[in-house]
């Protein structure tokens, strides 16, 4: 029996003798099935072809995969004065990666922004001492491997500890959530937006998509709702979904500027970016 992992999105499924026929996340219009069709890999096979990438990213311990695999997100380990947590997960769990994480202390919980980063969440939870996995209930239909460690939250905001909370923004997925750490690693507050607000390549803006690979924009209403959801939060830094995709300094102003730019670009009566300029 194996818990097969989808090669395109990195999601790990329930254990079985055979891999599932298809991956619902990849047949969804927000993702895609790879050019060679639906392909699966076991954790053991993945550990033979790939290694965990364990590096600091803008002051936080990051865990990724090398060479790149699937969506190529990197998880982050946050050490606050009240708890230690893993934000997002990856597909490859190895003893070396687990040791690197636990070297700084025990992990209290895992929280994940949305189903694209569920990856091998149950494998991670078990390896880190059977810690809770917090997922927003609005996305529960996408859970591919069930576990008693998964805890669904239903609110619009969930306080994890003093100065640390999850905020449901919706948009990309109904339960798409961001993490806000009031202190942040540098003292000025940090936002961890998953794909709800995507840090762009220039590392000075964020943008919004219903589907990033298939280029389906998010509606203005959804972006306005995201803007309202985070309006009262202060943050200097924004940590994007993968290595180096971070806005370090003036993050709140960058988000506000980006929201205005996006709404101008998709406005039906505007000339798009010409008007925004
Ligand atoms: Zn998939
Ligand atoms: Zn996504």
Describe this structure in words.
The radius of gyration is 18 Å and the shape is globular. Strand 13 and strand 14 form a beta hairpin. With 277 residues, the chain is an alpha+beta fold. The strands form five sheets. A seven-stranded mixed beta sheet has the order 4-5-6-7-8-9-10. It has a six-stranded mixed beta sheet with strand order 11-12-13-14-19-20, covered by helices on one side. Strands 2-1-3 form a three-stranded antiparallel beta sheet. Helix 5 runs antiparallel to helix 6. The protein is built from seven helices and 20 strands. The structure holds zinc ion (2 copies). One zinc ion binds next to helix 1.
Taking the alpha carbons of the first and last residues, their distance comes to 57 Å
Number of strands: 20
Beta-strand share of residues? 25-35%
Strands of the widest sheet, in order across it, are: 4-5-6-7-8-9-10
Question: How is this fold's topology laid out?
Answer:
Layout: E1 2-6, E2 12-16, H1 24-27, E3 40-41, H2 43-49, E4 51-57, E5 60-66, E6 75-79, E7 84-87, H3 95-102, E8 109-111, H4 121-127, E9 133-136, E10 150-153, E11 157-161, E12 164-168, E13 177-181, E14 190-192, E15 198-199, E16 206-207, E17 209-211, E18 216-217, H5 220-230, E19 237-239, E20 246-248, H6 251-266, H7 273-276
Parallel strand pairs: 7-8, 8-9, 9-10, 14-19
Antiparallel strand pairs: 1-2, 1-3, 4-5, 5-6, 6-7, 11-12, 12-13, 13-14, 15-16, 17-18, 19-20
The structure holds zinc ion (2 copies).
